[in-house]
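To whoever picks this up:

The nightly regression suite flagged Thiazole synthase as changed. Nothing in the input moved, so I suspect the structure step. Input below, exactly as stored in the fixture:
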Amino acid sequence: MSEWELGGKRLSSRLFMGTGKFASPKRMVEALEASGAHLVTVALRRVELTGEENRHPDLLDYIDRNRYWVVPNTSGARDAGEAVRLARLAASAGLPRWVKLEIHPDPHYLLPDPVETLEAARILVREGFIVLPYIHADPVLAKRLEEVGVAAVMPLGAPIGSRRGLETRAMLEVILEQATVPVIIDAGLGAPSHAAEAMEMGASAVLVNTAIAASPDPVGMAWAFRMAVEAGRRAFEIGLRKPEKQAVPTSPLEVFL
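Regenerated output under the current build:
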């Protein structure tokens, strides 16, 4: 797959990987390799940022940062202030000044808070962060975030971890039509076919975690998602024909008349 650009960085894959829910760090590393992903996200609450010696290993100890672009995410933040503090802490600990901005105060549905997300994005962009906000599939919010200066928008396909696919397809289509920044479909993708569908619509990338990490075979599933993303993107670039209202013969009928 050809390289593309996000936030001034060249990326070699359109499949982004989350790093939660794996049974072991070893399985995570194997799945990352099989996925072909270049960008991976890591929840800051699962990372040791104190710099103390003799600490227990965390996820960053297992991820080859020369091979993968590690983007911290603020999952678990309940408001803009908390998300901004987490991003600053990660940057001060030497992680890239990139952030997947997640703010979801409701622990049951984990739906993103649009008001707090927009406020945090304003602050972090002003401080020089490359901001990738996780949002509802809300075209108006997506445009407001573009105006603030985010590097991409990351609308959900369905609630986090639900594996229900592109339930927000109608609104995703509007976002994709209007977007002037990359659109990365994040959350709810449960099958490779969901990823292919998102790419066929014109998404720049997809982010997958649960569907791979919770699979009986994370390595095999990572490979399946990799192939689906590549196939979907290729189909989009070639151009898909619109569905017909009636049957269209594949061979000229008059030949037999």
